[in-house]
Amino acid sequence: AERRAADARTARDEAERKLREGIRPVILPTIAQLEATKERLQYKAGLFHFAVAGIAGSGKSSLINAFRGLRNSSKGAAPTGVAETTAATTRYPDPDPKNPFVWYDVPGAGTLSIPDWQYFTDQGLYIFDCIVVLFDNRFTETDVAILRNCAACKIPTYIVRSKSRQHIRNVLDDKADVDIDDPDVRAAAREEYIAATRAMVERNLQEAKPPLPEQRAYVVDKETLTQVVNGKEPKDCIDEWLLLQDLLGEARRRR
């Protein structure tokens, strides 16, 4: 009994030390939790289950609509809005019967009164076959916590930054004494935004405690992605084609 108590104190002290140092714990689910969550979220054998997760307001619902080839106003689209509209994890089968995919819209982290590291467990992210970690303005500790827990559960992840058209416009608006309609100026703003995005993600992965492996950041816009999913070839693609190809390749490898 004394040995067990001493071990418990040691474990508690170690956990407290890690929290003080900014190291988030990784909590793995039990088999019972795993099965209960699969049943609750209607996980079906033979299908590939994608989740889109991230902080509130990052555009998760819009991205899911784009992955399904739908606009936000389309019938059957996930609800979107200025405020966080997803209160519970919502399941959306792919509308194309040739695609054995299910897309899950996960409530935004930061809207719930739980620590960021606990978000992964409480939302049942451990059941998914692949997780898209979506961010808008900043790549946060919450995003890092999701990636760390995914690694512990051996779930492949894709880091995606949304709303590229809006962000590139913001870069242009911040430039003084330039012709924002000049194609060269617009191309330079686009490259500046892409480089800044990738540098931000790389820096945050390196500064995580402990550091996380280098990982690509995909830069996309929902309008462009919707066109790509529907077989069109928009001129303003950044990473939309590559992201879609990589996700489909992941699904083929793991099914």
Descriptive key words:
9 helices, Rossmann fold, 45% helix, alpha/beta, six-stranded mixed beta sheet
How many separate structural domains? 1
Rg of Cα set: 20 Å
By CATH, the architecture is named 3-Layer(aba) Sandwich
With strands numbered from the N-terminus, the spatial order across the biggest sheet is 2-3-1-4-5-6
Account of the protein in words:
- GO terms for molecular function: GTP binding.
- This is IRG-type G domain-containing protein.
- Pfam families: IIGP.
- The chain is of the alpha/beta class.
- It has a single domain, classed as P-loop containing nucleotide triphosphate hydrolases (Rossmann fold).
- 45% of the residues lie in helices and 11% in strands.
- The protein has a six-stranded mixed β-sheet, with helices on both faces.
- Strand 2 and strand 3 form a beta hairpin.
- It is globular, with a radius of gyration of 20 Å.
- The N and C termini lie far apart (47 Å).
